Amino acid sequence: MMWRKNGNKRYFTRMGTRKKVHTFVRVKPTDDFAHEMIKYGDDNKSIDIHLKKDTRRGVVNNQQTDWSFKLDGVLHNASQDLVYETVAKDVVAQALDGYNGTIMCYGQTGAGKTYTMTGTTENYKHRGILPRALQQVFRMIEERPTHAITVRVSYLEIYNESLFDLLSTLPYVGPSVTPMTIVENPQGVFIKGLSVHLTSQEEDAFSLLFEGETNRIIASHTMNKNSSRSHCIFTIYVEAHSRTLSDEKYITSKINLVDLAGSERLGKSGSEGRVLKEATYINKSLSFLEQAIIALGDQKREHIPFRQCKLTHALKDSLGGNCNMVLLTNIYGEAAQLEETLSSLRFASRMKLVTTEPAINEKYDAERMVKNLEKELALLKQELAIHDSLANRTLVNYDPMDEIQIAEINSQVRRYLEGTLDEIDIINLRQIQEVFNQFRVVLSQQEQEVESALRRKYTLIDKNDFAAISAVQKAGLVDVDGHLVGEPDGQGFGLGVTPFSAKPGKKSKSKKTFKEQLSSSARKEGASSPVSGKELDVSTSKTQLTPSSKEGDVKDMTIREQETSSLEPLPSDSPKEELRPPRPSTPPPKPVAFEDFKNERGSEINRIFKENKSILNERRKRASETTQRINAIKREMDVTKEALNFQKSLREKQGEYENKGLMIIDEEEFLLILKLKDLKKQYRTEYQDLRDLRAEIQYCQHLVDQCRHRLLTEFDIWYNESFFIPEDLQVALKPGGSIRPGMVPVSRIMSLGEDAQDKFSQLQQVVLPEGPDSVAFYNAKVKTEQKHNYLKTMMGLQQAHRK
């Protein structure tokens, strides 16, 4: 057993016994099978290969002519049903019990890997391992009503050592801005940026599978017309919670279905150009995969080269990890491909040496764990109460203390410190902890009282505050040696700076305090500053008014968003439309009709659109003004920095003065420092206002675009219904009718009868040759084909429109 922790989640893995990888071989059917060279064992678990010696090598010929490979099964002339029952059924079944599984197809190009893994979508009986696995998962979920099981899927493609999401073409996913990367954590390896999709029914899973298959990269060469040019990994994620038990433990698992690209001999495939480059990447990654398999099979090897390529890195969990691993090797049965067949069988025999340790993946639900702990706490409190009553103890409260009890303990601590209370009675552990906590509170309060008393009597200055010390020295509040003068309090000298009124012989100076000196000097500088004087007053008033205006803007925009989102098209039989003139024989131009629409049926949407547009323009104007103020402050900051640098360089040339390690600066440089500090504060305030305005502009732009889209959509509906639908069908579009305006396209309204697609959907439920189990498969296939046909048609129309 092994615990793993990540953040607030805990993972529990129950380690199993080590087992070797299962390897199977599937021979591609052919009319030209080499019976003399390839022979199967009686138990269908071994293959013997025999080659005739090459007489051209002479009499002394040590060429190996016989090979024997022991496997877990040989599938020759086997159907797709038999292949799945033999290879994948047990792996998928154990996945719902918490065991990870991996099924990998390996072999030469054109040997039937993709057909074995995916099959064909034209015939339900010829479907491959992947759709059958999805079907088995959902069938087993129906057989387990005591568990709440969720299924998610992802589809990864590795093409030329780059990662791609085959499901990124879905409208709610979209292409990723940043490239996908492989990340490792204590729970294993995962692909950052890969989309994972929740599927609640079998048809949705098939739709995602077919969507990914249409995005795969294929090419044609002499050995395969539809050769896969990339490695693909389809992953099924399963998570099961018990409905009956209140246990916080639940299980998770994943099934990796790997379709590897085929190895190629360039001399046989005749690849050129882009296909040649793809073949180079494929052979290189398969070579690294074989190196990793050899290292895993060697028990003495400590380092496994998983990171040599993206394929081995992504399959690190599957290769020798805690999962059920199955390798299905596809080979040719022809004599011409015997060398490649031997290479594939060697790979299978090396994979058989790899051992895995399947384990159940258990996790703990934090919310359910808290509930169980609360129940256990209540039971423990009841047991304590029974124990106290049996021991004749007074009633002890084990609940957290309320405010009244805390206040009482605080009073006891104060009386104990004052000496009026000799001792504090101890009741339970909570009270002891609270007593110590109140001691800390009382101590903190006394420290604050002492500090406030000192501040009322003295002016405290931080020794590390360079600007304040320089200003005090300029004001003449220190002696020649730089010592601070204390105020006599009858017993000695107090630490701090004496008040101005207590200095003998300096009454005239004491009337002008240090703050007044700074304010007077600031007024002197204010004459030349573009952001002082009136502008400072304006910024102050603006700061006071900003919260209320922003709250009003947010409320206003929220109301407008609700108006925009909740707008419904007006009824088609409104009084304005009843009184309108008869329909013209020819439809009016769209620009003219659009103006009429904005004044009649679309007047409300047009009003909201104009209001949102005016708000957007006002925000842009305010942002422009704020930007100008920021630029002015920035220019003033640059001027102040230059003056400050000049003063520093002048001080360095004239010689620096130090007093006990403190640098002494003149008044002009000190005022420049204060001025720069104020300018930076104004700059930050204005910049924050600009950021808020930009966020509001973006939000207003979204509302304007939404209103514009709604206005144009309602206009198209109104235009088609007003000038193209026959008048005898207008009755169906009234509020009392069965059709809502805009709900059905014009082409469907023109023929309200049942179309061919509806008839087909009803008919396939009855006459499908494979029975009702194939309905989800064919429905997903039809939907995927309809989607891609629609996209092709739209792209063709766009290209024709551009021409």
TrEMBL record:
Residues 363-390 form a coiled coil. One of its GO terms (biological process) is microtubule-based movement. Pfam families: KIF9, Kinesin. ATP binds at G107, Q108, T109, G110, A111, G112, K113, T114. Keywords: ATP-binding, Cell projection, Cilium, Coiled coil, Cytoplasm, Cytoskeleton, Flagellum, Microtubule, Motor protein, Nucleotide-binding, Phosphoprotein. It is found in: Cytoplasm, Cytoskeleton, Flagellum axoneme. Residues 538-549 have a biased composition (Polar residues). Residues 550-563 have a biased composition (Basic and acidic residues). Residues 582-591 have a biased composition (Pro residues). It comes from the Eukaryota. Residues 496-595 are annotated as: Disordered. InterPro entries: KIF6/9_C (IPR056524), Kinesin-like_fam (IPR027640), Kinesin_motor_CS (IPR019821), Kinesin_motor_dom (IPR001752), Kinesin_motor_dom_sf (IPR036961), P-loop_NTPase (IPR027417). CDD domains: KISc_KIF9_like. Residues 20-354 form the Kinesin motor domain. GO terms for cellular component: microtubule. One of its GO terms (molecular function) is microtubule binding. The keyword Transport does not apply. Belongs to the TRAFAC class myosin-kinesin ATPase superfamily. Kinesin family. Essential for normal male fertility and for progressive motility of spermatozoa. Interacts with HYDIN. This is Kinesin-like protein. It comes from Panthera pardus.
